[in-house]
User: Fold this.
Amino acid sequence: MRIFVLNLRTIENNENMKILVCISKSPDTTSKIAFTDNNTKFDENGVQYIVNPYDEWYALVRALEIKETLGGNVTIVSVGSAADEAIIRKALAIGADDAVRIDAEPNDAYYTAVQIAEYAKSNGFDLVMTGKETINYNGSQVAGMIAESLDLPFVSLATKLDVSGTTLTLEREIVGGLEVVEVALPAVVSCAKGMAEQRIPNMRGIMAARTKPLQVVAPVAVEALTSYVSYSMPNAKSACKMIDPTNMDELVELLHNEAKVI
Amino acid sequence: MSVLVYINSNNGLHKSAFEAVTYGKKLGADVTVITSGNADAATLATLGNYGASKVLVDRSLNSDDAQQLTRLIASAATTTGASTIVFSHDIIAKAVAPRLSVRLKAGLISGAIAVPSADGTVNVNVFSGKAFGAVKVNSAVKIISLLPNSIQPEANGAACAVEDFAGNVGDSKIKIVSTKKPEGEIPLPEAELVVSAGRGLKGPENWGMVEDLASALGAATACSRPVADIGWRPHHEHVGQTGVAIRPNLYIAAGISGAIQHLAGVNGSKVIVVINTDAEAPFFKAADYGVVGDAFEVLPRLTEAVKKFRSSGH
Assistant:
């Protein structure tokens, strides 16, 4: 048996590997986007919330695959209100072991990241995984901020992740290509498409999720660094100009002289 | 006001670098660029044309390691007393800017699409491009990561000084094992012209006509999600809500119906051309120019028309 001393805690072998998967809620991808209160608030009327797809399909499913192969424990963490427990239960139904909800509104990436980093620090994890971004705010900020808060290496936009001992081997997107990298645990990884395949929870998972531990913890005091002041919608497109399919010279002419894009 | 702009110069300077410096110039009188690696001084000096008064370069750092770059930019920010730090919102910025935000306790505006409004807020895409959010930073120092193709580079200045800078970057904890970079491809998020196709193309063997049109135009190629999912095209070409979000000047979509998730990734495009056999395809509602016809006939015809146009000196 090997003994590894890690920054966050000591693990004796992979069977004890502790993975923290951060999930966020996001509106269903087919949701109609509208705002209320003089365009200062997202209109939740009729909106169905789901687990942010990058968090669920890639980070969570890959964490579960690692656990199924090597053993260990997968914990879900989410910063949100009691209403968000539905998406946390969904993540438990897919197969996570337990969950923590940090009882605060995740309005600012820094605020959210510090909450998760504080929780990770006091509870000890070997690997922190997130999706590459949320589909509502698209900031791609939280994972990097968690990493800096914990002074850990961060592999962003990973499309492949394997664990061997305390070393991670990852593929990640770089400008114009792909890179294979190695990093020692503990580490933070944000997950992109290619990492894993979506899993649909089965009835057994859904039943089991009801009784899995879901702990609620109070947030730590920290100032938000940013705030969303208002929202607006893109201008509606004017009517589409139809071109005769046999006359592509006309299309080229319009793209050059009218649209001025070529 | 002192502005610091981080530029990645490891593969030469791209348009996104000129955009970021132009953006910095619009924010403040004094713009310093911080970069690393081996780009020659004459090349770096051209950033002065876009408004930089000085380029600082750390020659000791040759990687894009996020922890090292964070330390480099943080020490340059301290040295220059920068109140705003600007990135181009690319893969490197997505790894470095959040770290820097925590290190400097500086609010991060990620994916800015415009210069600040009169009230100091900056617009970003939210809900995967379906709406805009106006973001305010509450901290004294702010970080703005500018989405490529959001502003036009403006070259009104002259070459500037290039100085060596020691950023105390420390060690990297990430070991690079290998790198795969397809040669000669235009990175999708930076491309000004994009030709994209979907299931209407019926199979990967038919992509030749998409590539022919792209090469005639000098465009990058992209695809819809189903096409990437069934493996006809690589994942990095998938544009849409769960793929890459792009905002080229011209987006040509053939055989893509235009589901809301696809539109989310492309509706920042300045001009959209849709080619589809189905006149009722939802994509026509988001298009500027529409062609109802068979992609198998229309694409080669459009390629010929583009070639004729290009050979006439355009």
